[in-house]
Amino acid sequence: MIVNPVLRGFNADPSFCRVGEDWYVATSTFEWYPGVQIHHSRDLVSWRLVARPLNRAALLDMRGNPDSCGIWAPCLSYAEGRFWLVYTDVKRLSGAFKDAHNYITSCETVEGEWDDPAYVNSSGFDPSLFHDDDGRKWFVNMRWNHRGTGTGLNPAHDAFDGIELQEWHPQKGLLGEVSTIYTGTGLGLTEAPHLFRRGGWYYLTTAEGGTGYDHAVTLARARALGGPYETHPQKHVLTARFDPASPLQRVGHGQYVEGPDGRVWHSFLCGRPLQGPKGPFCALGREAGIAECEWREDGWLYLKGGGMVPPLTHPEGPAPAPDLPVRHRFAASLPMEFQWLRTPCPERIFTLTGAALRLIGRESIGSWFEQALVARRQEHHAYRAETEVLADPPNWQRGAGLITYYNRHKFHALLVTHEPGLGRVVRVVSCPGDVTEALVFSEPVAVGPGALRLSVTVDGAVQQFFCGGEPVGPALDASVISDEGGVGEHGSFTGAFVGMVAHDLTGQGWTADFKAFDYEPHV
Hints:
With 523 residues, the chain is mainly beta.
């Protein structure tokens, strides 16, 4: 049984690819390093994280990238015995400009060492690579228009200025003239173009409506690659914008794939909102699903069974295995589900001692350059996480502990630190969605020497920290750690993480050792 979303917890913009009996989904990672997640499946039911290809400075360096920048909407494809990965590194979010740089890398195997990238252009984001039947390759991306009102090709949103197409060659780069092939529908914000060919038609899948609750997958087609493209009779193949009661919301942005058995599928991103103290919030960010589709006599693709809202389940086959607790005792390597922020130089922020994960305190929580924060995705609406930390900070400028993190405006942390007159203490430090980055502190609690067990429970919109089983600080608003949380929501479309953090505001690289990390879902 396929249960949507198939990739839970911050797996946005799913690019869908099949090679023989193997299925792959590549998703955005934004400011988290290494870049791009690739999951693999043989049955569309069970998925395993197999690679994060952008794992060295030559491929990706995001130091200084603002929150929610970095890797947007990768495209994974397979041709000529190689995997091809197209990706954008976005360097600016707010304001009129974007500074979105597009690259292509390739590799014979998903899990191998990917080539140094070829730079392509910076005209917009969400690029893809189309391999035509004649062997030529075409680069497609949306074009960003910084000029303001009244200057764009689609009046529904001036900045999203159409889908552009240009031939690309692995050795020669871009060839010929660039052309605009599609400007979208009245919904606007047309992005995420993916081309495919079937039955004498070129089909263009796009995402429209923004990545919020008006999101949609829009389809167009043309007899010639360069157009003109006509829009689908119902405009959108997938969307939940007309069904506010659906448990899957924000449906859009995906890619079409045909299976070896002739069945056809389309990936999509979605969110599963919960009700919080200030309204709905997606605790798990934007997640990835797949929906079976069908071709009808008019030559257009539709959701199988009708409608436009993808189903929660495709009933045939066994159900996925239940989620079990994940328990790590750190040894020689960092478990794959963990990531860090921005830097291609992880040796500057952590090492593995053989008995612990040693975080090297660097800049503050929320730095855009170098901070020691190693975390994993929140994948369930309710969970418990625990770590064991050995840390003896000599003053209040050092701290280490357990953190739930969205971005520099949205986090809660239980830190082991030092207060004059008390010595070693634990206290909760929060930035509850305040764009001024004002911190909220709980009262410090003195603790004795030795290792400490720090834990957190999250259940929907309620979060509580513990030290040694005793609660520390008040119950917290977990809805802050979400796309919609707080007042600093602009540009928030990633997801919630839970993990370990250390900082040293003296710049001396004070260290803290984390012996273990457990994540236990509560379903």
